[in-house]
Known about the structure:
By secondary structure, this protein is mainly α. It is built from 18 helices and four strands.
Amino acid sequence: MDKRVAVLLAAVCVTSTAFGQVRDQHSIDGVVAALNAPLSAEAIAQARQYDDQLLSQGRDSTQRVYLVTDERSRRVNDLVRKLLTAMGQDPKAWAVRVLDTNPQTNNAFVVGGEYVYVFTGFLGAAQSDDELAFVLGHELGHSLLKHNERRRNDSVMQLSQIAVLIAALSKGKTAQEFGQFGEVFGAQYGQKDEAEADALGAAIALRAGFDPLRGADFFTRMVKENDAAAPGATLTEAQLQSMRLQATQAQNTCAQSMTAWNAGQIARTPPNADKVNKVCADAETARLSFNKANTEFYDAQTQASLQKLTSSHPSNQSRVATLAATADFLGGRRDLASLSKYETAYIVMQALDTTHSVLLQPADVTSAPPMVQTDKPMPQDGVTARLEKLKGAFDAGLITRDEYDATRKALLTEL
Ligand SMILES: [Zn+2]
């Protein structure tokens, strides 16, 4: 263990005393204590350190992590801003990162109370803003309830993983450790943690103007897809790398043979021509089979990350029923006492009530952004502009004559 890990471990042990006074972490008192506790400076410092490492070294030999700054980032930022505003938080204090990976990672999590990470694989899997809002509300719920720090309280050993992880990242082992990171912050929550995060997530999403019940469809669908998925590829990473090497070598041999043939260094006889052709045909076969294996390998990895997410967020009928009841309470359609048979949701709502949480207050409609009038172009203008664009694309060689003709015909029928 190096010095850095030792120092971080010490920090972790200090923070773990914050919830020590409450016996049952999942009682009303426990949840109230968690909601009232500020995030420790150490947790924030660790999250910042992790973020710095991730962005400065976001890659290794197997997985690269790219920061996304395009339209997808704006969509997520807009949505998270609504959720944070609903929580009474200042969105400016939070960093929201959209990350692209290869293979796609279907995950989202919140670290240190001020960093939200959303992977493009998750954006691709979510089918509506309600789903994005509920899942992110749920993750923000884990953060509000300090689940990471409370879990540390249960077992200080688990906590040390975060410190080890940061140390590993600083040595550049991003990909593998990054996978572990997801586990540290996701898969180890207990069922009660998950139920608490659901209740809070529903309150956050609803107050921000989203439908938490529709949002919960995300988990239901993921579980269904998971059940239906075929077993993953059986190739190992090492086998894949060996195939890549073979394909590259075969292509080099082909290129060398062609060069020698063209330069007249090989006698130009029909048998020699056959040999050169055979070498190059083999190279092509090796390239194609590597590509196929590569796709299968990464599909299987994507599937594995999906399983990781869904296994920690089981979807079942009681979850849906609890969410429906919670949404009814939050919407004023039933009273708090009637929620008592949904134990965890009841406890969380009681705790929100005790702490006078903003989440139980009606949303401030006056702060909603004004409606913007958009000037819609006349349909005919739209078609004309699109025809011009199409012609431009054809002239630039971006589309074929057939594509040009077919699209032009379709556009003209709109006139
Ligand atoms: Zn969760």
